[in-house]
Amino acid sequence: MKALLDTNILIHREAPVVVKQDIGILFNWLDRLSIEKWIHPASLEEIEKHADRKVRESFAAKLESYNTLQSLASLSSEVAAICSSIDRTENDRQDTLLLNELYAGRVDLLITEDRGIHRKAELLSILDKVFTIGSFLEKVNAENPEQVDYKVLSVRKTLCGNVDLADSFFDDFRVSYPGFDSWFRSKSQQPCYICSATEKLHAYLYLKKEDEREPYPEIDPPFAPMKRLKIGTFKVTLNGFKLGERFLKIVFDNAVLFNVAEVYVTIFTDTAARESLAKLLEDFGFRLHGRKVNIYGDEKVFVRSMLPQFRSEMPRMTYPFVSRSSRMFLVPIYPDYHTDLFPDSILSSESPADFIEHEPHRNAIRKVYVSRSYRRDLKCGDTIVFYRTGGFHRGVATTLGIVEKIHTDIGDEEQFVRLCRQRSVFSDEELRKHWRYNPKSRPFIVDFLYAYSFPKRPNMEALISNGIIKDINSAPRGFEEIGPKQFQRILELSGTDPRIIVD
Question: Per-residue confidence at 411, pLDDT binned at 50, 70, 90?
């Protein structure tokens, strides 16, 4: 196979300060799977113009590690028709040339962090061949589980003073922020969240509560006084495991807990890893507010409102809030899959050691539910109450989800697997069995947001006695719609934080 690497991947690889884990793992997988690394002449021209001399010299020294396309495909009329109206700059037109090679079949896949390329690929119906670093690692992890190196990942809360400051994980912070070590030591008694595997640090999150008296002299335009949660330090280096989403859920959980009006973060978007982080934040409603000007340079300031609101057409933008005005559905999930999909909804009878977050679907906020329910008319913004099956005493309601998208018109088995991969509890092999089980009744897919785990778990007995389920024979078998009064009673029985419910 031939993989065409976009310029941003090459620069990320050759930059003086790189995140070793993600780019290194990408190239390691390419080598292990004998996938040839190809570059486009347009990328060579772009790198020759790069402002960083070290990047130019490093790439020139390693040019023999890559194959350069010598014969280029003529611009396809289909590619020209779709991209000509989109392309505005010379870089846009160069991106189109890379896509054209993929469209013409000269290469098998394209790896890029450029969202514009992904949007054009979707219009050209070749998005399944275009990957970010993260999505490529997700693909190869799923297809080659026996070769995955990271078998144990643990996300845990600790004190900053318990984290090894000398870890190379923090090297890029030391470069961007002189004095970082001193600042870090001053936070030794403050809590933080980390993820480690085989004694190596792969993710770190530090949060800071701020009240209305907090000064912001360096932020332009100025912040209005209000309670905020600052993402002080946030870095994820191991792609392919949805760790970014796992840590982002921790951010939102803390924002609700502390009842803040906004969450914000300042970021230098000078590396592919930091740029990917900024894109993840934007996917969940963070907007570019302005900049922070200080001795280190200009940082971008991203802000996310945490005032109760709900956008039914784009619930990710108002996550984790759930609307009381939406339709509500009760849906079953078998015990074998429940805690695997919802690790925060673990029951007291289960062992946390069995659910360490080494599977991407456990970490993800955006998850997939596979169903054969007769009810298939769900729509974006609908609320799902997940019911863990188990009978009169052991069957319990545990989790709230928000529907993002429904896939009922699925063309074939490969598309079905691709749509579910890494966000479903099922392996590729299990997904194929689901697809083939009954050709006359193919499964459909519900994309949803994992919003909230109930503090208390009302069992079937309580659901029946409170009029939510009629009797033991009426337990949900598919998507069963419930009314506002039934939903309210579930919220009361489960001790749900009323702040996440929007009227």
Answer: confident
